[in-house]
Design goal:
Number of helices: 3
Largest sheet: 6 strands, antiparallel, barrel
CATH architecture of the largest domain: Beta Barrel
Distance between the termini: 107 Å
Number of domains: 3
Structural class: alpha+beta
Order of helices and strands: HEEEEEEEHHEEEEEEEEEEEEEEEE
CATH topology of the largest domain: OB fold (Dihydrolipoamide Acetyltransferase, E2P)
């Protein structure tokens, strides 16, 4: 009886274990099926952008430059000698005529040859008079008279040169704009003593960067004013354009001439501003400014073609607050991205907004 009972218990244990194994296998299969995705999810890498076409237009930009005023004719009066100043018979604001003496130096100074030249001239003049008298009486030949005349002419030229070195004149008529030295000061050769300038007509001298030079030409109108009183403005024209850049600043010197106002408010030496319209030729390639990305390799744009974006390096020209000229790298009618650029890379598929090809 006991043995039959043990066999029955063992049979029940085998049945229970078998059922448990089936349940465990069933549960494992169900968990694996539940974790398996029902369908494959595809990712969309397209970037939404706005675009604009490259168009042929003309751009105009008004820029303001700063410069200094000079007389339309202006002369810095300098000395050829290192000598003491005896007199400056003019003052700032005086009108002077061409040839008028405006600075007198010491005629007896170490550097001056005035009195020596004067003595030589007097001797040559007396010798010429005697020679003429002898020639008229037939005592000497024509050749002797010609020699005396030549010696006199040379002595006179030397005296005039010596006198002009100590009695300095102005080469132009105008107003005394500046007196830099005083009576008793010693001059240095080449250093200005007095500045004479015309004030009825002036010129503004300014520097322009090389990037702006292609859009500047002689005859262009320019508006000139001073920050001291911006309400007083005059119209001038560009009259001179330097062909050589300043090596230290890489800028070009430009001169604009204009007629002064009735009360001659503008004065030589003043600072003034000039408004100049820079204009491209008609038909240059233009795109919106926001289409340009500035990188270490230079400016570039993303060209949109056949639903994909490709970066392209470009060269830029004139730009205003909305548009920018592209001098190289793009062709008319090509399409560039204007919004969404930060999410683009070469070959990226794009979705173009319905605002595509926004007009410039």
């Amino acid at each position: 009886m006991s043995m039959r009972l043990n066999k029955l218990s063992l049979a029940l244990l085998i049945v229970v274990l078998s059922f448990a194994s089936i349940q465990l296998v069933g549960c494992g299969s169900k968990t694996k099926d539940e974790n398996k995705p029902e369908s494959k999810v595809e990712k969309n890498d397209s970037v939404a952008v706005l675009t604009s076409k490259v168009e042929a237009k003309q751009l105009t930009l008004t820029k303001v430059y700063t410069g200094s005023l000079e007389g339309d004719q202006q002369a810095n009066i300098v000395s050829q000698l290192a000598e003491r100043i005896l007199s400056i018979p003019v003052k700032v604001g005086d009108f002077v005529k061409a040839g008028q003496v405006i600075v007198k130096l010491d005629k007896g100074g170490v550097s001056s040859q005035y009195y020596q030249a004067q003595s030589n001239l007097q001797n040559a003049e007396r010798n010429l008079q005697r020679t003429k008298a002898l020639f008229e009486s037939g005592a000497i030949s024509r050749q002797s008279l010609d020699g005396a005349q030549t010696a006199y002419d040379i002595a006179k030229a030397n005296f005039n040169a010596a006198r002009s070195a100590v009695e300095i004149t102005t080469p132009i008529s105008g107003v005394v704009a500046n007196v830099k030295l005083n009576i008793g000061d010693f001059t240095s050769p080449g250093n200005p003593i007095v500045t004479v300038a015309t004030i009825s007509a002036l010129k503004l001298i300014m520097s322009i960067g090389e990037a702006d030079m292609p859009y500047v030409s002689a005859g262009k109108n320019v508006k000139i004013y001073s920050e001291l009183n911006p309400s007083i403005a005059v119209n001038g024209k560009i009259t001179e354009i330097s062909k050589l850049a300043d090596l230290s600043t890489r800028t070009f010197q430009i001169k604009a001439s204009f007629n002064n106002v009735k009360n001659t408010w503008f004065k030589p030496g003043m600072f003034a501003k000039a408004e100049l319209d820079l204009t491209t030729p008609s038909g240059v390639s233009v795109i919106p400014r926001e289409a340009v990305i500035y990188s270490d390799q230079g400016p570039k744009v993303y060209v949109i073609s056949q639903g994909k974006a490709m970066s392209r390096n470009v060269k830029l020209g004139l730009q205003n607050d909305k548009f920018i000229e592209v001098t190289d790298g793009l062709k008319p009618e090509e399409v560039v991205a204007t919004v969404g650029l930060n999410n683009l890379k070469d070959g990226a598929p794009v979705i173009v907004s319905t605002e595509n090809h926004a007009s410039l």
